[in-house]
Amino acid sequence: MTVDDLSAFRVLPVVTAREVDATVRLARALHAGGMRAIEITLRTPEALAAIAAVRESVPDLLVAAGTVTSAAELEQVVAAGVPLALSPGCTDELLAAAVAAPIEFIPGVATASEVMRVRDAGLRVSKLFPAVPLGGVAILKGLAGPFPDMLFCPTGGLTRDNFRDFLDLPNVVCCGGSWMVSDKLVDNARWQDIERLAAEAMAVS
User: Fold this and answer.
1) Looking at 39, 73, 104, 195, which residue is catalytic?
2) Which of 131, 147, 169, 186 would be a feasible disulfide site paired with 154, CB 3.0-4.6 Å?
3) Is 114 tagged catalytic?
4) Is 46 considered catalytic here?
5) What are 88-135's pLDDT values in tens digits?
């Protein structure tokens, strides 16, 4: 996977899988709305099963694993055949495992020092998390000066109303958000609304 691949996604829906079948239906709705990738977080016991089910049911949708917080979890993700993993932060152990892993990895950063650490490890793309509480567009503009070679996937606090502001920045390769996959929409099986929101996001991204 290349930076060009990531930039083609533009918007990466961040999903917490609480039920496998519902996650598959959600993924189908996102794909029908034009989404080409989905991030399923490792926040629930159902996550890995949901990842496998979505990969089988919607083969044209790139499935990434999110909230990877340890080398052990990264090993599980690699074993599952997932091509991309993302983390909210990055420990020494996780970073070392990620650099050696045969998949793409986007580590979470929140400070300039963390960006430097990731860059020193040879990684070019980071996940700014939580983006909006950290300063949103302003912090990304600030990081662009000392780190012109680094790209970011801001996640955390992005909404239907502000995500385009992030995508307009030259150092943003894609952005993560959950406004189109909220628990309320999923719990009420509002698949058409999810498809509509996905299409809307892709149309303006």
Assistant:
1) 39
2) 131
3) no
4) no
5) 999 999 999 999 999 999 999 999 999 999 999 999 999 999 999 999
